[in-house]
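Suppose a colleague, Dr. K., hands you the sequence of a protein chain of 282 amino acids and asks what its three-dimensional shape might be. Before reaching for any lab equipment, you can write down a predicted structure in token form. Begin with the sequence itself:
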Amino acid sequence: MKRLSLSRSVMLTAFVLLPLLGIFAQETSSVILGHRGGRNEQDENTLQAFQNAWNAGIHSFETDVHMTKDGALIIIHDSSLKRTCGVEGNVEEMTVAELRKIRTLKGNPLLFLNELLDFFHDKKGVYVEFEMKTSDKKLNPDVRIPVYCEKAAQAIKAKMPADAYWSMTSFDYRPLRYLHEHYPQIRLMLISGTPCNDQTIETARALGVQGLAVTLDGTTRAAMKKAHDAGLKVNLWPGKKVEDTLLAYYLGADFLCTDIPIETKKYFDKMVPQAKVKFGAP
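The predicted structure, expressed as tokens, is then:
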């Protein structure tokens, strides 16, 4: 038997799920986010990535924030520069001056938080999840956490548009606890590499956060209902294919994080126009 092409596979998935979308999806819209600006469509976490995605109608994003040796905040997923830039070194052990000289493998300069916030500053209908990349305790000992949190929270609060909807997220409990105590007005989300289940729900409630970002694989509608009943917004990831986003929508996710936001938007616009999805602030 011949394997189905990707486009035929997606169409078949939609044919099966299409009658179910209106029955099972939430009454409120689900928000589809460009993961790192759209990591499989763009040079991830660069200003070019966010500009291209924005111009394509993607106004909701997930991105990553590290802190340099001299206390600047930089938009990059890994501590190590090897994968994206082909050079040795960790951003937490380098200065801004050193990092300004480095380019990605595709030739783009590294992006700093203040530059990304300047890009969003005059935009309407923005949603952003800022992931706090502090989990490596060797690079980010406890003494750095308050400094990191203060810098990030103050910068984002000062520069994000007044009508923007944004959250600060992390795998690391430490910044979530700090912000919950010192900035209770900020929306917080716990990220977990496990599905939505009793344990992840209970951990999120114990931390006092408002959201939970968990893996699509293994998450059930029953678990999603428990999370919603507990007052949590849920982001399902990873979205590597359009089918992943369709499934996350079917499960009732509030937020859907995808590596291919532009392709996903084109698909939803053309094939599933009745789906209650947004590509900007909820």
